[in-house]
Amino acid sequence: MATTAFQKVYTKLTQVTKATCTVKASGVGYEELATVSGRLAQVVKIIDDSVTLQIFSGTEGIGTDAEIVFFGKPPTLKVGDDLAGRFFNAYGEPIDGGPQIEGKEVEIGGPSVNPVRREDPSELIATGIAGIDLNNTLVTGQKIPFFADPDQPYNQVMATVALRTPADKIILGGMGLSNDDYLYYKNTFENAGMIDKIISFVNTTDDPPVERLLVPDMALAAAEYYAIEKDEKVLVLLTDLTLYCDALSIVSNRMDQIPSKDSMPGSLYSDLAKIYEKAVQFPSGGSITIIAVTTISGGDITHAIPDNTGYITEGNLYLRRDTDIGKVVIDPARSLSRLKTKVMGKKTRADHPRVMEASVRLNADAARAKTKLENGFELSDYDERTLKFAYDYAMQILAIDVNIDTDEMLDITWDLFQKYFTREEVAIRDDFMQIHWKKE
């Protein structure tokens, strides 16, 4: 063994697997970075003096005499005001041709905020997407995922949220993005003239899958800088956490750990909670809001990834292709924002909660009418009207391409109520009816 300042160098591996290698070493810390034959690696297990490292790009071609150089520190990110407007890889290195970042070096992946430093979330996040703002209003400091099939346009929805949300900083953590999706985000932000408030950490399909494990921690380290040091409202967009979990599974399986449900590691809940629990509202006004994407194959929400996610997050937004209107909608029956009551009718118009409840109820009646129709039962006049309402409601409110403000959403929904139903069928309090039900 030879040593240099702040580094330890070893040249005798005791074991090499598909993604990891093991060496006898001392004075090494968990999650410490190293290079193995020049390839970046990270310590993932320590038993006595036996240290196992995961090699991000794989171990192909590495022999037992490979040189291992330990960095003496875990992954870090340099934070400062010049992060804004930049694109980085999973290691926090610029990929946009710009200069290296100068700033304070902070460790990534630290603990979540102490509960005594948190404030109850109470500030509205208006995304401009009617299917979210009307039925599942979001709040600063919230953690919530989109559940979507892999072929749905969730990246476009996330970009729309970024463009419309009045956050001080928006941080994108892209995991397994295709080059087309990466360029879509980049061009969308540049064309909107808001690149200076966007910070992106991107792992593409051309990069090693295991590198995805660093992306959420990089994004959240940057978010903590702006939320804590600058008291700014930060929106963190993470896509796609299913690919992050697949990377966890790759490492777990290659380390011969016994898999849990659906081939996921037994630590899946903790791994996801470590990310989502970084969402916080500070008394000083700074906040971190996390909106993620969890892709679901074949709509199976019982899979370990969405199942664990549902226990951690404060609701979910479910994307579904509506075959009646031929568009993707925010499904009101399967979506839920558990914190919406903190702002509905308080930071939005007073009639908002009642309109939301009535529209969801009438839409559910339409779903029952559709079932009757499909099973050959005769429809009542009310059934026929609910189906017409549901079509217009999906087209004008639920579709993801409907981008309007909350007052306009409410006015459109009132118009639909009056178009298809009587006052008694809508069943909203009379004081709101007096204001919003137009005289016939």
Walkthrough of the structure:
It is a single chain. By secondary structure, the chain is of the alpha/beta class. The chain folds into three domains: 6-70, Elongation Factor Tu (Ef-tu), domain 3, CATH 2.40.30; 76-338, Rossmann fold (3-Layer(aba) Sandwich); 352-436, no CATH class. The protein is 32% helix and 24% strand. The protein has twelve helices and 22 strands. The strands form four sheets. Strands 10, 14, 15, 16, 17, 18, 19, 20, 21 and 22 form a ten-stranded mixed sheet that branches. Helix 6 (268-276) crosses helix 7 (304-312). The protein is elongated, with a radius of gyration of 25 Å. The termini are far apart.
Helix content: 25-40%
Give the CA-CA distance, first to last residue.
89 Å
CATH structural class of the largest domain: Alpha Beta
Write down the Rg: 25 Å
Layout: helices, strands, pairs:
Layout: E1 2-4, E2 7-10, E3 13-16, E4 20-24, E5 33-36, E6 39-47, E7 50-55, E8 68-70, E9 76-79, E10 87-88, E11 104-107, E12 124-125, H1 130-133, E13 138-139, E14 143-148, H2 154-164, E15 169-177, H3 179-191, E16 198-204, H4 215-229, E17 233-239, H5 241-254, H6 268-276, E18 280-281, E19 287-295, H7 304-312, E20 315-322, E21 327-330, E22 336-337, H8 352-374, H9 381-398, H10 406-420, H11 423-426, H12 430-436
Parallel strand pairs: 10-16, 14-19, 14-20, 15-16, 15-17, 17-19
Antiparallel strand pairs: 1-2, 2-8, 3-4, 4-7, 5-6, 5-8, 6-7, 9-11, 12-13, 18-19, 20-21, 20-22
